[in-house]
């Protein structure tokens, strides 16, 4: 199956659609759980399937260091490696390397960086990053970009945006020349990977607009908005999404990278976003912060010690169906492994249920009503 | 359902039977996974059910400290607390307190000890330990005993054994007077908990024999052999089991505490043992040591990095059905939570499958043949 995106319903700017990829179909809008090292921390793949996870995000930077992209290529690609016969998306490593701050040095050619594991020296160029993504073999891969730091001056942000555009072209050219090298090429009817371009432009609306327009001129099958959720106030995030998204083509999928809270993801859908990923549900779960229909819960709180009710009475996940708040509190307070497992399952269920309800509302033309019931995102705690 | 034990088949000293408890039936011989703090570390309860776990062991000492036995009692008992509507067995805390070594002081009345968590002072007597076990509400509970340290002199061991006999009587009398206080009393047809006596006697065969005979005189519905696997050489363990077990009544269940390797548990069944528990499969799993039909595997070993075969080609557990050694190696080497989860599931599957095959062999009269294929246990690594 080659890549295709089909919009099935619209309401305002919001869209419900389907992505077709070599490893299967994805119903959008979609939330993609983060499985950095080819695992969503603590959750077996069959449980992810039960939860209705459609597509996972893996981090190229991390897999490049461990177990190495050549290793994954030899094992048939990341889907086979982690036994996940469904779509996967990889980032390009650009954002991860950006996060290393003083362990990196950026030039026109690429980024020299040191491993956070052992301090060893490495170099990512657009070409080598895409080569790594080809070896990993995700269905959707991301162009190599520079995520501009925040805050940044206008001139610096413009230069960075220009370089990201040049890197986008190089990413595209490299994939075009090497696309048949994806590990599962022969096994999937000669399908190839799909490369998304990434809009940058920091916190300047005119640069966001220009980045969107010029990235679209490069003609990608999908577009991401990157470089947000990097410490800026939330209203600014919305402003930047708005500045960029109106210049993205309506018939191509739009991926907002690295967001957000349950309330925020609903509002991003309202702005026309189709795909999102975030470590928040999984990371928060491991720290005992749980999302429920009645608000956020810090499960360690002593008031749950004797609470024999479910975590979220409106949730039908296997955690809420079986365990009490008192038990979950005990597991967390006792630092038991199962706390992290169960908390993660619930938080993912909450995000995925939210997205299913959003999609259903759009299909029924009831999204405006749905949206009106969601707390304005700028008030939410992230 | 009140407690009952029924032997269905015998071959040599080995028996296949059924235990009936207030929370359901257990087919013996049975291996009981250890769920110290009301959780088998990293494994959700539905997965334990899928694995065919019939009965869990919880540790009274640990639950007494966290979340507290009164808390568990108010929440309906440990089965309800952990949402495990199947049999549970609790130890009395005696062995756990024994493990605290210099944090404890033993007198005729009981044991003063300090919490390993915060150093706070506590006291367990036979009466207070049984009271704790009643509050927790396990189906099978253990008499409060002194586990004699190893090595120990003869006179010291005899004194300790005598005290354990006096404590066994006190344990029994306390339960008799308070048995209706079990949290689920009304809900389970007025069934009560079943108390097992524990044979001690250190590493002296004559004391083991005397302990067995005099514990049987106290008349318990089941008998445990305790105080083994405390550092003695394995042939001595066998000698002590042999010295005791021949004096236990053939119509009562026999529980050998805290053993063993997969090979050893088969040989203990051959000696007439019906029940065993051990942290080995779960603890070893968390350290990357996996039991397979082809021997032990240290999954971290670099030779598995590119091995796309299953962990154990003869195992039908969900880990072996889905994941490769290369992936399991990657998870372990990357210190990923899922390594501990999947490794634990496999090791438990291996133990439970072993025990199912043992039981089946006894029922078919083929246990001698089965046993001849199991490596002599004194050669095995524990």
Textual characterization of the structure:
The structure is a homodimer of 382-residue chains. Chain A is of the alpha/beta class and 382 residues long. In chain A, 40% of the residues lie in helices and 18% in strands. Chain A is built from 15 helices and 16 strands. Chain A has helices at 45-51, 60-65, 69-74, 78-81, 94-99, 126-136, 154-178, 205-217, 234-245, 262-270, 280-286, 318-322, 325-333, 337-364, 367-372, and strands spanning 4-11, 14-21, 24-28, 30-33, 56-58, 88-90, 104-106, 111-114, 121-124, 140-142, 194-199, 222-225, 254-256, 275-278, 289-292, 295-298. In chain A, the strands form 4 sheets. In chain A, strands 4-14-13-12-11-10-6-5 form an 8-stranded parallel beta sheet. Chain A has a 3-stranded antiparallel beta sheet with strand order 1-2-3. In chain A, strand 11, helix 8 (205-217) and strand 12 form a beta-alpha-beta unit. In chain A, helix 7 (154-178) packs parallel to helix 8 and helix 10 runs parallel beside helix 14. Chain A is globular. The mean pLDDT of chain A is 96.
């Amino acid at each position: 199956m080659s890549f295709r995106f089909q919009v099935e319903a619209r309401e305002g700017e919001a869209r419900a659609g389907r992505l077709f990829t070599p490893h299967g179909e994805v119903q959008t809008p979609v939330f993609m759980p983060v499985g950095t090292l080819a695992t969503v921390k603590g959750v077996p793949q069959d449980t992810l399937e039960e939860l209705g996870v459609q597509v996972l995000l893996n981090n190229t930077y991390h897999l490049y260091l461990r177990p190495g992209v050549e290793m994954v290529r030899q094992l048939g690609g990341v889907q086979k490696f982690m036994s996940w016969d469904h779509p996967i998306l990889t980032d390009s490593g650009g954002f991860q390397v950006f996060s290393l701050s003083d362990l990196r040095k950026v030039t026109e050619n690429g980024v020299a960086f040191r491993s956070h594991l052992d301090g060893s020296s490495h170099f990512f160029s657009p070409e080598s990053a895409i080569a790594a993504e080809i070896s990993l073999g995700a269905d959707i891969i991301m162009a190599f970009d520079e995520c501009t730091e925040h805050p940044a001056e206008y001139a610096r942000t413009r230069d960075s945006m220009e370089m990201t555009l040049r890197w986008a072209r190089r990413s595209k050219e490299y994939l075009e020349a090497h696309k048949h090298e994806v590990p599962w090429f022969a096994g999937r009817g000669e399908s190839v990977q799909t490369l998304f371009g990434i809009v940058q432009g920091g916190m300047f609306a005119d640069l966001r607009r220009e980045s969107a327009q010029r990235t679209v001129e490069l003609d990608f099958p999908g577009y991401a908005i990157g470089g947000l959720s990097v410490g800026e106030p939330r209203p600014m995030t919305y402003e930047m999404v708005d500045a960029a998204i109106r210049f993205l083509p309506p018939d191509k999928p739009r991926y907002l990278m690295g967001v957000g809270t349950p309330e925020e993801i609903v509002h991003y859908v309202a702005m026309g976003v189709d795909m999102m990923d975030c470590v928040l549900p999984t990371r928060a779960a491991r720290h005992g912060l749980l999302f429920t229909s009645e608000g956020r819960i810090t499960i360690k709180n002593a008031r749950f010690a004797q609470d024999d009710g479910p975590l979220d009475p409106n949730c039908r996940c296997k955690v809420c169906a079986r365990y009490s708040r008192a038990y979950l509190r005990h597991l967390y307070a006792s630092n038991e492994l199962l706390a992290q497992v169960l908390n993660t399952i619930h938080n993912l269920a909450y995000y995925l249920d939210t997205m299913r309800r959003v999609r259903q509302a759009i299909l029924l033309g009831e999204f405006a009503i749905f949206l009106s019931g969601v707390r304005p995102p700028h008030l939410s705690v992230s």
